[in-house]
Amino acid sequence: MKRSLLALSIALLSSNAIANDAINFDYVGAGYGKFKIDGSSTHVSFNGFAIEASKKISDDWVISAQYLDTSRDHSRSSEYYSQGAEFALESNQEFDISQWNLGAAYVINLEENSVLELAAHIGRLEADTTIVSRHTVQDSSPFNVEADRSTVYESKAHTTTYGFNINYHYAFSDFFTAEAGIGYEHNDEAAQENEFVYQLGLNYNITPDFTVSALYRNVDAYENHQVTLRYNF
Questions:
Q1: Residue 13 CB contacts under 8 Å (≥ 6 apart), including other chains
Q2: Largest alpha-carbon pair distance within the chain?
Q3: Closest CA to 118 of 183, 199, 188
Q4: 183: which of 91, 165, 213, 227 fits an S-S bond (Cβ 3.0–4.6 Å)?
C-alpha cells in the first residue's frame, strides 16, 4: 500500500512539473493583429500584423516586447448637378495606427500548475492620417467651365503609455494553457488618463517548439486582438 501511494505521489509531481513547463516565457511570435477604438459613439477597427518576443532572464524575471501595425482605408464619392454643371467629389482616407510596448515582469510559481505574473510596461501609440480629395466640375452650359482640384491632408499624433498588470497563468495540460489579468494603463490623450485594463489569453502547444496563441486586451479607450504563431526556445 505504501509503495502504491509513493508511486502515485511521484506520478502527480511529474505531471505537475510537465504542465508547469507548458507555461513558457521564452518565445518569438508573429501573426494577425487588430486595433479597435471603442468610444461612446465610435467603433472602428484597424487590421494588420503583430510581432512579439519574450525572454526569461532568470528564474523570477521576464522581459518582453510587442509591436502592432494596423491600418484602415476608406473611400467615398458623390455627384450632383446644379445649373447645368456636374460636380463630383472623390475622397480616399488612409488611417494607420501602430503600437509598441516594452515590459518587465516578476513571476511567482504557484501550486496546481499555475504562475502569477506581476508585469509593468512602457509603450507608445502612433496614429497617421492621410486624406486625398479630388473635386471636379464639368459645365455643359455655354460657358463650358471645367475644373479639377485635388487637396491632400496629413496629420500625425502619438502618446506614451505606462501600465501595470497582474496576470494569472494556468496549465490545464501539456498542450493547453490560459491566462487572465487585470491592471491599469496611464494615457495622457485618453478621456480618462488612468484606464482600467483586463486581458484574456489562450495558448495551444502544437509541439514543444511551436505554440498558437490568442490574446484579447481591453483598455477601455481601445482594444487589442491578436493571434500569433510562437517559436519556443
A1: none
A2: 109
A3: 183
A4: 165
Q: For residue 36, what is the DSSP state?
A: E
The three three-digit cell numbers of residue 3, written as one number: 509503495
Distance CA(198)–CA(181), nearest Å, equals 6
Cα R_g (the chain), whole angstroms: 26
So where are the chain's domains?
2-232
Q: Cell 512539473 identifies what position?
A: 17
From first to last of the 233 residues of the chain, give the pLDDT tens digit: 445 444 444 444 444 444 557 899 999 999 999 999 876 566 789 999 999 999 999 999 999 999 999 999 877 777 777 666 677 778 888 999 999 999 999 999 997 799 999 999 999 999 999 988 877 777 665 555 566 777 888 889 889 999 999 999 999 999 999 999 999 999 877 666 789 999 999 999 999 999 999 999 999 889 999 999 999 99
| DSSP-assigned beta bridge partners for residue 195 | 185
* Phi, psi at 14, each rounded to 5°: -65, -40
In CATH, the architecture of 2-232 is Beta Barrel (2.40)
User: Apex CA 66: angle with CA 201 and CA 210, to 5°?
Assistant: 60
Strand 43-56 to 85-110 pairing = unpaired
> CA torsion angle for 210, 58, 54, 25 (degrees, to 10)?
40
pTM for this entry = 0.79
Cell of 28: 518569438
